[in-house]
């Protein structure tokens, strides 16, 4: 595996609200140094919706010698707004690349379900609901997305001279001729566990370098079986903010650690070019050990647990990722 990476959250923007209120560059530098030195990563997937934050984090990552996957993450934006975001970020990513860093521009993540214009529905849940049992809807969404990505790539390439990728859900089936690297959001669950390694083998065999992004699970017993939905144990308020863990779930950090160790070993065995664990930390899902009902970190795919005061501690998954990356 060439690129041993992890996703780093710079703040997701939805309807003008950002998930991380604080963005301390000293903290970012500390975290990225840990990612390089303690997790043995040589690459980082910087995700978020604020172009300035992405550029600043990329500058720090570049100084640490990390390969940077510069990843604007549009949420609930119109196609025109997504293009505007990509244009701004492409200029910023090129500035970082011109200073000598290795930069890959990620031209969106799961765009067809995370944004309007490709599927019916006012939010992700409604869009996914329209897909269930409707293969024709998948084809239609894929066709719309391919047309959009052709336009997006043309816009990005006017400003950015490095390599491009797109982080797809398999049904989206983008035109890979547009990109230098194929990136797939492939998350193992009980339903696909029997064919998971074969699915990785099949995409690697298609020729271009393959990266696996977006994989991971949360830290509760049984989460690995439902990994794509492992965050759904949390209830939200009317504003969509996480407030409490539903009854009946038990914290289990070893479940998350075992899951990540197993899938990373599959990626290495099947010859993927890069892997990016999702994710380092999810700051708006704090760990509250004395209040299990409000221990939102149980539902976080982060490999560190963030406390209400902002400090973090490694989970068992941190050690698992460090061990695998340290020996491959």
Give the spatial strand order of the biggest sheet: 1-4-5-6-7-8-9-12
Number of H- or I-type helical stretches: 9
- Integer average pLDDT: 96
Give the proportion of residues in helices: 25-40%
Structural class comes to: alpha/beta
Provide the gyration radius in Å: 19 Å
Uncertain residue segments = none
- Strands, total number: 14
The shape, in one word, is globular
Oligomer: single chain
Q: What does the main sheet amount to?
A: 8 strands, parallel, barrel
Distance between the termini: 7 Å
DSSP strand (E) fraction? Answer: 15-25%
State the order of secondary-structure elements, H for helix, E for strand. EEEHEHEHEHHHEEHEEEHEEEH
Descriptive report:
The chain has helices at residues 25-37, 51-63, 79-98, 111-114, 124-131, 135-157, 196-204, 253-270, 316-327, and strands spanning 3-9, 13-14, 17-18, 43-48, 67-72, 103-109, 163-168, 181-185, 210-215, 234-236, 242-245, 274-277, 304-306, 312-314. With 328 residues, the chain is an alpha/beta fold. The strands form four sheets. The chain has an eight-stranded parallel β-barrel, surrounded by five helices. A hairpin with a 5-residue loop joins strand 13 and strand 14. Helix 1 (25-37) crosses helix 2, helix 3 (79-98) crosses helix 6 and helix 8 (253-270) packs parallel to helix 9 (316-327). The protein starts with a strand and ends with a helix.
């Amino acid at each position: 595996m060439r690129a041993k990476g992890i996703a780093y959250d710079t703040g997701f923007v939805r309807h003008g609200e950002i998930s991380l209120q604080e963005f301390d560059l000293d903290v970012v530098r500390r975290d990225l140094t840990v990612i390089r030195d303690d997790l043995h990563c040589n690459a980082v997937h910087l995700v978020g919706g604020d172009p300035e934050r992405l550029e600043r984090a990329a500058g720090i990552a570049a100084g640490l010698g990390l390969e940077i996957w510069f990843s604007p993450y549009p949420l609930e934006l119109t196609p025109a707004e997504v293009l505007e975001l990509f244009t701004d970020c492409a200029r910023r990513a090129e500035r970082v690349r011109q200073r000598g860093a290795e930069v890959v521009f990620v031209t969106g993540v799961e765009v067809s379900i995370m944004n309007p214009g490709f599927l019916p529905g006012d939010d992700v849940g409604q869009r996914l609901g329209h897909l269930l049992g409707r293969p024709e809807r998948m084809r239609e969404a894929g066709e719309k997305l391919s047309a959009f990505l052709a336009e997006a790539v043309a816009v990005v390439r006017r400003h950015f001279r490095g390599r491009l990728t797109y982080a797809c859900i398999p049904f989206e089936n983008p035109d890979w001729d547009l990109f230098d690297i194929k990136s797939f959001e492939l998350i193992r669950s009980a339903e696909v566990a029997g064919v998971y390694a074969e699915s990785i083998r099949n995409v690697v065999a298609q020729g271009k370098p393959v990266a696996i992004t977006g994989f991971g699970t949360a830290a509760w017993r049984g989460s690995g079986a439902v990994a794509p939905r492992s965050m759904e144990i949390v209830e939200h308020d009317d504003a969509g903010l996480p407030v409490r863990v539903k009854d009946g779930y038990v914290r289990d950090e070893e479940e998350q650690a075992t899951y990540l160790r197993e899938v990373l070993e599959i990626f290495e065995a099947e010859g993927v070019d890069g892997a990016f664990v999702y994710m380092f930390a999810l700051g708006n899902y704090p760990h509250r050990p004395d209040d299990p009902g409000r221990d939102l970190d149980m539902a976080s795919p982060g490999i560190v647990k963030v406390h209400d005061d902002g400090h973090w501690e490694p989970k068992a998954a941190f050690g698992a990722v460090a061990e695998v990356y340290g020996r491959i």
